[in-house]
Amino acid sequence: MSIPIDTYCLQCLLRRNIALAQTLGTEEQAMAFAKEIMKLYLAAPEGVSSPWFGPQIADLLHEMYGLDYDRFRQEKLDSNRFVLERLPAIREKVTAAKDPVLAGLQFAILGNYLDFSALQGQVSFEKLEEMLDKALEMELDEQVYAYFCRDLRRGGKLVYLTDNAGEIGFDRVLAEAIAAAYPDISVTFCVRGAIAQNDATREDAAAVGISFPVIDNGNRVAGTQLDLLSEEAAAALSGADVILAKGMANAETMLGCGYNVYYAFLVKCQRFVTRFGKPMFTPMLVKERE
Fold this sequence. Notes:
Elements: H1 7-24, H2 27-43, H3 54-65, H4 73-96, H5 100-110, H6 125-133, H7 142-153, E1 156-161, H8 167-181, E2 185-191, H9 202-207, E3 214-216, H10 231-238, E4 242-246, H11 248-254, E5 261-266, H12 270-276, E6 283-287
Helix pairs in contact: 1-2, 2-3, 4-5, 4-8, 5-8
C-alpha cells in the first residue's frame, strides 16, 4: 500500500527542509539537521511514503530550531478567509451548472493548489483567482467520473478525506452538491488529528462552516496513514461505501489500499509527474479499483 518514497521524494524532502533550515541558523546547524533527516530515512520501515516523515521532521525543526509546529497558521487563516469571501459566488456557479457535482469537483480540485508546504514560496492567491475563473473548463477522466456518480447513486456512506486549509471550503461546496444530488448518501468529513503543515483540522472545518459530521484521523501525518488512524477514523474508512481523498498526500499514503477510493488532486511534484505522465498542475481524478 501507498507510494513508497523514492529518490525523487528523498531529494525533494531534503531540498525543501534543508532550504528552510538554512534560513533558521548556521551552515553547521543545517548540516547537523540534514544528517538527522538521513538517519530518519535509514531507520524508516520499508515502503513508507514521504508524508510518513512529516511528524518526525516537524519534531526535529522544533527541537533544533524552536520552530513553531503551527508555522503555517497565518497562511491557513488567509486561505480560509480567501475561500469564504468567494464561497457565495462559487456556490452560485456550482448550483447553476448543468452538473453541479462535476462543477463542485472542479472547484474542489483547484482548491488543492493551496498547499504551502509542497509549493513553498510559490502559492499565489492571484494565480488561484485566475484558475478559479476557468474552473468549469477543467477536463477530468470521464470514465472515472461516471464510476464516481454510479457509486454515489447507490447510496450509503461517503467519507471525505480533506487536505489543506482553505481547500476545505471548496470541499464544503462539493459535499453540499453531492448531498443535494444524491440524498441516499451520507457524508462524513475526516480532517487531520493535529497540526500537520497547513492541512485542515477541526478548527478549519468549523471556520469554513462544514455542516456535515467531522471526525479526525488521530495523528499528525499529512495524509491517511492507515496503521496510525484513530479507531473512529479506521472504522469510518472500513465502513465507507465511497471514499473521496483530496490531495497528493492522501494518494501517497493510501494508493493500493483496496478501499473504494477516488483520489482528486493537482499534480504538484516530479514524482507524480513521472507516475501519472502528466505535467505540473494537471487536475486528476483517479480511481483506486474497479
